[in-house]
Every structure is written in structure tokens, then in C-alpha cells.
Amino acid sequence: MVKITETCFRDAHQSLMATRFRTEDMLPILEKMDQMGYWSFEMWGGATFDSALRFLKENPWDRIREFKKRVKNTHLQMLLRGQNLVGYRHYSDDILERFIKKAYDLGIDVFRIFDALNDVRNMRKSIEIAKQCGAIIQGCVNYTISPVHTMDSFVKVGLELRELGVDIICIKDMAGLIFPVTAAELVSRLKEEVKLPVCLHSHCSTGMAPTSYYAAALYDVDHLDCAISPMSQGTSQPTTESIVEMLKETDNPTQIKDDYFPELISYFNHIRDEYSNYWIHLAERVDVRALIYQVPGGMFSNLVSQLEKQSSMDKFDDVLSEIPRVREELGWVPLVTPTSQIVGTQATMNVLMGERYKVIIKEVKDLCRGLYGRTPAPIDEKIKQLAIGDEQPIQVRPADLISPEYEKLKKELKDITREEEDILSYALFPKPAMDYFEFRKDPIQQKQKQEQDARGFVIPQQHPERKFIVTVDGDSYEVGVTESGQVIYDAYEET
Ligand code: CO
Fold it and tell me: Which residue has the higher pLDDT, 230 or 485?
């Protein structure tokens, strides 16, 4: 039996509508979905935390509370970036401990944990804490293609994760790069050699994921991540209904009761309509360029936006070709948050400056210093010399160098809030958290936000051809018009 994780509450809307799904719109369907035999709902973590504070003006912790009230049979699952938690830098161990315990106490019982570099030292502490809580832990092997990422290297990460006590190995294929034959082979080898249940997580970006899921199922994969049809395909996951149907005739069917599908489909069709302003239509297209340049879907739109800000879209193809070079020089890092942003930005600088590494971004220097962990292959010596000269990279786990942060932040916030969860929100995203605390006690801002939502403002990640400023009700907005004539607003937020 394959166990199905439904991703519509996290990865699917992160991939297709820039993480804008509001908690109140998730709740009405939960009790029904809880009866369907899903193994888990992936509904927290990743970019949802940042987006809740920054754009939705919600307390991110409330989403777990509300789910927990309604979901009794299905695990609640989150995505955790190891020592980065749900942020973009490494946090101290005391923040990590409080964050994971809080999430567990509120109702998260499956933690999917990954590190961008597959450096398990950055996952050790979070696995340890989640284990102490009694949660189920999926340890991730980030899938990518490079000369140093062999089948053996993935199995080795799997074995290291088993050492740390994870319960399930998750093959995390964030750019949809895994071929069906590779999926079959990797699932078999992980099951045989690591001897733990295996989950396959992929995206339809290159169009191969449904077939790879089928191949994995034939080789006894234990878990698959799917999204209900209106929220599936493109840079999102394969379609739940299709996977359930196609596996029926195999030795490895799912446990999903499909008689509820029609109701679910109409519910989520309605959600699509409601959020149509946020929908990123480009993300729904199959784009095999990811196979050539190894660029995940989300990174594509960020690149376009960076280049447009500099009026340099004519350099787009040059930047695309520069990415694999930079990636090789930086030790073949997998492209996933935050390394995708680091490689993408440096490649853009290399092209725009007209001279490679004339300007080196701080994050590349930190990568050379070892502050993100161990790269899969050594960093090119020439680049390292340019970036940090003779400075010696650290050899220890990066977070060993970060002193405890919690008590200091607690003092800093004592006149604003004394809630542990607020202090944790602030630890991860100081400015958005502070803005949210202001918003929470300000009825005028709340009313403005309601009106803004009704007008469908703040639409992200589209690519305007022309831009201008308009004023509506006394507020100024940056407005863009796309190639197809669609008008969009405040176009440049990235999640
Ligand atoms: Co994903």
C-alpha cells in the first residue's frame, strides 16, 4: 500500500500561487478530507511561515491550532530546513529547540527535515529534538544531477540519516529532475541498503514526475506526495486522483477513498477562482529547460524579476548558461533554498558586470567560509581565493558558532509581547513579525488589508513589460502590464 501525502496546503500553493492560501479558506474542507485515508497533510513550514506574517497578516502558529481542531485521523506534516528552520540562515540551537517543540505541541507530528547541501550535520540537532518530542521524522536526500551526485552518494546520505534515527527517507526532487528509471533504482537501493520506508517527492516541472511515481510504486515506494487536481501539475506535485487511479491495478495501490474526490475537486476549483489573481500561469507549463540548466521552477521567475529590475532581460540566456558554471565552481551544490538564490544571484552578477566574479556576493563568501556546511565537492580554489583570500574555512558545524539567541530577543520584545511563539516568529523574521504585531492591534490597518484583499492587490511573480505607479484611495502601488495585457500590482515579492 502506498501512503499518500496531500500537499495542497503547503507545497502546491507555494509552487503555483506564491504561498498565498489563507488559513480560513483551508478549514471548511478539512473534516471531509480527514475521512479519505490520506497518510498526512503537508500544511506548514517551507515558505508558509514567512508568507503568513509578511503577506497574509496571520499568526503562522494559528494554522496548526485550527488544523488540529478538525483533523483527527491524518498526520499533520511540516517542511523544516534543518538548522535554517523555516528561515534563510542558521539559527542557534536554543531557538531550534523551542521552535520544534512548539510546533509539535500544537499538533505537527511529522517533520520532514532537509539541508540544502545534504550536510547531515545541519540536520542532526533538529532530528534529535523532533525525536525527543516523539514525532515521526522524514530525513531528506535532496535529488540533483551532477558528476558528484551518484547513486552511491545518495545512498550514503540515506545511511547517515538512518544513523541519526530518522523513520523514513524522503527523496526530495525539488526541480522535477528524476527520471523514471532513476526513481525505480534509487527507491530499490534505499529500501535494500538503508532498510527504511521511502517517500518520493517530486514536481511536474519537466513533465516526468507522474511516470517517475508510477515507476517508484512498481518498486515498492512507501509514500508519495500528491496534490488534488486543481492544485497540481506544473511546478506543483502530480495529481492525487490520477495517481490513486493508476495504482489501483498494481500490487501497490493507495488507501484513498476516491468517492469524495468530486466534492474536493469542486471545493478546490472554487479556491482557484477565488485566488485567480495570485495564480502564476507560467508555473503551470512544462519546461524541460530545468533539465539543461538544473534550475528549479521557482528560481526561474526570481531570475526574470532580478533581470527586469536591471532592464537586462536580453542577458537572460547568458545567465542561464552561467548558472551551471557557477554551480560547478561552488562545489556542485543542489539548487534549493537558500543555495538556489545564492547561485542564481552570483551568476546574474557575473553576467551583468561583464567580468566573472568582479563582484562576489556575501553569501558566496560565506559558502566559501563553510558557513552553510560542507559542499558536495570542493569549491574551486581560484574562486575561493578571490572570495576569501587566505582565510581558512570553518571545519565545525556552522551552528556551533552561534550563541544562544532566545533570552536576548525575549528582553528586546518585553514591552511588545511575552508569548513564546511571538518571540520565535521575531527570531526568524524580525521585520515582518514586528509589522504583524503592529497590524494585530491596529483596526485601521486591518480594515485596509481587507479592502486590499478584495481588490486583489499584491500579486507576485509575474513579469510586467511596462511599469508605472498608480494611486488608489490615497495609496501608491507599482503597477505592471504583462505581455498579454494583464494588469498586475506590486509585482516583485519573492517567497
Ligand atoms: Co517540493
Answer: 230
